Amino acid sequence: MQPAPRVAFGVIADIQFADAEDGHDFGGTRRRYYRHSLRLLRDAVREWAAERPPVGFVLQLGDSIDGLNARRGEAEAEAALRRVLEALAVLPVPVHHAWGNHELYNFSRVQLARSGLRSRPAGGSAGPPDPLCHAYHCSPAAGLRLVVLDAYDLSPLGREPGSALREEALRLLRDKNHNEDLNNPAGLNEPHFVAFNGGFSQAQLDWFSDVLKFSDENQEKVIVMGHLPIHPYASNGVCLAWNYEAALAVIHSHRCVVCVLAGHLHDGAYCLDSHGVHHLTLEGVVETPPESNAFGTMYVYEDKLILKGRGRIADRVMHF
Fold first, then answer.
1. In angstroms, rounded to a whole number, what is the distance separating the alpha carbons of residues 54 and 233?
2. Contacts of 29 (CB under 8 A, 6+ apart)
3. Is pTM, for the whole model, over 0.90?
4. pLDDT tens track of the chain, all 320 residues?
5. What CA–CA distance (Å, rounded) separates 131 from 153?
6. Is 278 helix (H, G, I), strand (E, B) or coil?
7. Residue 1 lies in a domain
8. Structurally, how many domains does the chain consist of?
9. SS3 for 178?
10. Per-residue DSSP letters for 109-174?
């Protein structure tokens, strides 16, 4: 008989809600169901509420609303975010939010830090020195630590003009991407150096290593979440953090990380890396037809994670 899990939690990515008719991706070939995505989120919440054992928390892996809202004005963006947060608030459990590129198309970091997407719990979960870096850690169950990474810490998106990290990001991006459109990966030797991706500052990487050192010493299992994949085999080669190698080097220098969860790539992807770390990139809600869905419930056991997927997301057992 299977023992009870330590904890269960919900996972969902790339809701990208906008109160708008269906549209398409930047290439004009993939359909996006902007308005239906909110209904699919509400369906997910209803199913999580009925789970037994109940879910202890939810991971929202970024891009909760679409950049389309920003083109319609700040009030539209605020209204869209309010509706997403209200749908999630039906659950009486914490929701941990990653910040993705679409959040940063709609809001500055200062605005996000004052919004409901600032999900760092009070006390005992200090992040990097930069107060606008949305990275933190917490322990949602005994022997388990969750680390939320900010994959756009190093990015022009959301940063104030003239800020050091914005200028550093622009220099790096222009050094790697010589296309007129910095969102265009065509012809690049490193096609992930596009403006809709981002990276991790050295300060965040140093902080991340310190957190994992603590978990090593306390024999904890660690689940990492962020918007961008950090392994090329859990990506399509484009949707990938700029300095993913640096993030992987931190993870591989410690023993505690068992799984990295990401969004951004709407088709989803998975790999087990050479150090036994599972990298799972979830399919995006926004490109999920209304008759399907894209979310899951993860069960944490002593020696494995079991994902019960819905719709486009497959069931999966990840041993460690």
1. 32
2. none
3. yes
4. 678 999 999 999 999 999 999 998 877 789 999 999 999 999 999 999 999 989 999 999 999 999 999 999 899 999 999 999 999 999 999 999 999 999 999 999 999 999 999 998 876 567 898 999 999 999 999 999 999 999 999 999 999 999 999 999 999 999 999 999 999 999 999 999 999 999 999 999 999 999 999 999 999 999 999 999 999 999 999 999 999 999 999 999 999 999 999 999 999 999 999 999 999 999 999 999 999 999 999 999 999 999 999 999 999 999 99
5. 11
6. strand
7. no
8. 1
9. coil
10. HHHHHTSTT--PPSSS----S-TT---EEEEEETTEEEEE--TTSBSSTTPPTT-HHHHHHHHHHH
Asked whether residue 2 is domain-assigned, the answer is no
316 backbone dihedrals φ, ψ, rounded to 5°: -155, 140
Q: Is residue 149 part of a domain?
A: yes
Tokens of 17: 């809600």
Per the structure, the complete domain to which residue 135 belongs is given by 7-122+130-319
Residue 243 within a domain: yes
Please state, in angstroms and rounded to a whole number, the distance separating the CA atoms of residues 251 and 131: 23
* CATH code of the domain in which 94 resides: 3.60.21.10
Close Cβ partners of 22 (under 8 Å, ≥ 6 residues apart):
31, 32, 33, 34, 35, 36
